[in-house]
Amino acid sequence: MNNTMVIRDAEKKDLDAVIKIDAEISIDVYGEVVEKTAYWREIFSYYVLREKDKRLFLVAELDGEVAGFIVGEARAWEFGSPLCGWVFAVEVSPGKRTKGAGQRLFKEICGRLRRLGVSTIRTMVDIDNKVTLSFYRSQGMRTGRNIELEMQI
Amino acid sequence: MKLNKASLFALIAVLELASDPKQQISTTDIAEKYGISTHHLAKVMRNLVHHGLVQAVRGVGGGYTFSGNLKRTTLLDVIQIFENLESVLDMPNHFVTEGGPIIAELQSITNEIDNLTKVVLETITLETALKSAMLRHPPGSGASGKS
Question: Which residues from chain B sit within 8 angstroms of residue A123, using beta carbons?
């Protein structure tokens, strides 16, 4: 393996690889894989198969195999915020980490969003997801202007 | 949040040493660079040695070198050697039970703040902090530790 990495737009054929990578890291408290196939199909239909416009779904291909992906889009007035980029997900297969895939994906989506007129990107991460929080921080992200609030109903 | 002096000195020393893991620096040099107490820093360094974050180098030109893991050690790891970040309401001892719900609410709010503080500090590795510091003041820009 020579670790050749390519960052490209996701295609219809990548859906299974995306579902597989997500399953590798979506383990519930009982150690079971969280079933999210329907969710990823819907995301693919919206971000990959339709007119993309300001929606971005990129994959990192490492030696010909999908090693990770990132999803985001440019949106205005979400939560009252002027045009900014939202990154909804970044995932890299645990066996293919530390090769720079996440960093390359993040850099690429930032570049694409910048070309769409975006100067700020935002995301939300579960407070217990220290790996992803640390990743975003290592890329320069900081606590932003929006505070997420929630309650049980 | 106000860090205690030991935590602050530890963060300064660890980040200074980690900025170039090959370098050996004495306590006096670090203290002078940042304008902090050599005596207090010396105590902090002994603790950092004990926790494996720095290593004492003896002999001529001795001092300390960084011996931790740049990618894994977080700011919280360093701070928690010297203090825990749990806020405690400074209530008088004659606390009466009727105040329970209000005190519980105040404690809940301080816990919420503590949790956010901890998550920030726990997700910034030494490497990330140094990278941000370099972006703030690139080498050769004339910035000093006292700025």
Answer: none
